[in-house]
Amino acid sequence: MKLEYLNKIIIGGWQLSQGHSEASQTEALKVIESYYAAGFRVFDCADIYTGVEANIGNFIRAHGLGPDDIKVHTKYVPDMTMLETLTFEQTEVIIDRSRSRLGLEQLDLVQFHWWHYPSGSYLAALDSLKKLKELGKLREIGLTNFSAERVQGIVDHGIPVASIQVQYSVIDRRATKRLEQVTQANDIQLLCYGSVAGGLLSDHYLDKSEPQEPHENRSLTKYLLMVEEMGGWDALQALLGVLRAIANTHNTDIASLASAYCLAQAAVRACIVGARNTKHLQEHVALRDGLELSATELTQIETVRSKFKAIPGDVYELERDVEGRHGRIMKYNLNKG
Fold first, then answer.
1. What is the pLDDT of residue 19?
2. Three-state SS across the chain?
């Protein structure tokens, strides 16, 4: 099996990035330290998560960790302005920068994202990653936010794809339309982010009024748009009520239950849970070590979920419309190298 080291839970670093979090470098390192001490060994970051690769690298160096002690999944996200002229040399610079920041000779997994299909050639960029894999600079190639059709085309092109990371939750099930079948047919591991919808699938928002602008961060804006797509705030409250009732039987919280729902899906290999601080560390340990939903509980969730509108389009299709309301909140040029 590809990525054989994976457990059910990957610790996500986006919430520790500068600009998204007010956490200092010292506080960010404490979060990484605490999750590692609790037995978590796989961490997710990206070249465009400002400061996160460096913080994980500082942690690795400080503790003298080797490739068997920790696994780091990073991303390669070329700027929108680079897509038309992207070269192998530019790709190598970014990959080498990630290796330097993390202090790793070989990156465990590089997850590739491409902003705009018609711009440039994402296949050529993937060819560059394949060459870097052959040179030993990265172990595995993954994808981020590609549609089912594009994933199959990438595989047919000869790119060895180990995984794909996509938004997946009880609200957003776009991956079930076709992508799940493609991943299973090609032995590609499906990793889901957004399982708690930026925190909206949590006790914090149960029986509360809809948040008003200005929102705390772009993540909340992003997922509120998804709630609108699935039926609005009242629909979310109906879902939260059912999740809370089931959570009571497990002595857990709604967010953990929402992630457990994703992990119960046959095609899902692992769930990426964000960690801005250590507040939810014990819940994440419980989710990793044993929280599972029964067939009856999954049916209860599906019964209320089936009343919602389905998020339209394939994976990340709404977000790819740069002029649409989902695309306008994105930041397309965060990479420099």
1. 60
2. CCCCCCCCEEEECHHHCECCECCCHHHHHHHHHHHHHCCCCEEECCCCCCCHHHHHHHHHHHHCCCCCCCEEEEEECCCHHHCCCCCHHHHHHHHHHHHHHHCCCCEEEEEECCCCCCCCCHHHHHHHHHHHHHCCCEEEEEEECCCHHHHHHHHHCCCCEEEEEEECCCCCCHHHCCHHHHHHHCCCEEEEECCCHHHCCCHHHCCCCCCCCCCCCHHHHHHHHHHHHHCCHHHHHHHHHHHHHHHHHHCCCHHHHHHHHHHCCCCEEEEEEECCCCCCHHHHHHHHHCCCCCHHHHHHHHHHHCCCCCCCCCCCCCCCCCCCCCHHHCCCCCCCC
Domain spans, the chain: 9-329
Q: What is the mean pLDDT of residues 138-156?
A: 98
Q: pLDDT (tens digit, 9 = 90+) per residue, 201-250?
A: 999 999 999 999 877 777 899 999 999 999 999 999 999 999 999 999 99
Q: Is 208 exposed, middle or buried (0-12, 13-18, 19+ CB in 10 A)?
A: exposed
Query: CA 251, 252, 257, 259: dihedral to nearest 10 degrees?
Result: -140
Cross-strand partners of 268: 190
In this structure, which CATH number among 3.40.525.10, 3.30.70.360, 1.20.1250.20, 3.20.20.100 belongs to the domain 9-329? Answer: 3.20.20.100
- Cβ atoms of residues 128 and 106 within 8 Å: no
